[in-house]
Amino acid sequence: MAGDEAEMAEFAFGELGSLGSIEEDAADPGRKRITAFFASSGFDRERLRDLVSDYFSKVPGLADAWIEVDLEPARDWNERWHRFFKPFHIAADFVVVPSWEKYEAKEGEAIIHIDPGTAFGTGLHETTRLCAEALIEESAQAASLLDIGTGSGILAIVGKRLGIGEIVGVEIDPEALCVAEENLRKNGCGSIALTQSLESVDRKFDSVVANILLSTLIDLSETIAERVAPGGTLILSGIMHDQEAEILDEYLPKFAHMRTERRGEWSAIILRRTAVAAPSPDV
Question: What is the pLDDT at residue 176?
């Protein structure tokens, strides 16, 4: 598949519960091969093929992707992932470090310990980095944060490191939720609440970040908007450059468009919730 399609495929695999993914050059020039890893305890070969095929059929550019499903010993996955996942800066002075790596923190650096969970929980993907950078810039006035599609909890942990007092993470995938719980524990962030249901969150937040696919951002737009306090910040990602207009059409005029940040093929849109007008008095 082409480069931009490969980016979308990696994001889709993460949404489907992949433990991680690796992008490599294919035999054809300009084409990419994505290898995504899933736990065999949660998927058999036929079910996984059907799940990926059905998901890809709904994503522009992926409907004709070639899909192969193979069995690979867990030790092979672990060895490959250990070679691939090294300490890196996700944003500013925040450094993501896997448990098997030793890293000497430099002055001013904040360490976040993350083991592989979903592909987008590691912080390697552009959308996660975009969200982290926006969250850092917008966090000064935030006392509460809602992280929708929390994955392994990395953005929630960034929020806690920034001093945000009340944080809730929403993750519908039960395996990813377990990964998030473990990573929160490793980082001393046990006070962060986790839930599988956005509908169960019945309050408003100063900051809301949603790093999920375009279709879900559209389908849940009303519910997401209701969770942002008047004057609060909404950070949306998981979208590509040519999808920005569709997001703005959906979320305006309830929100003011502050700015759009881009990295690679991906975008993050930062919005501010407009004040809710008082109802007109009866005449």
Answer: 80
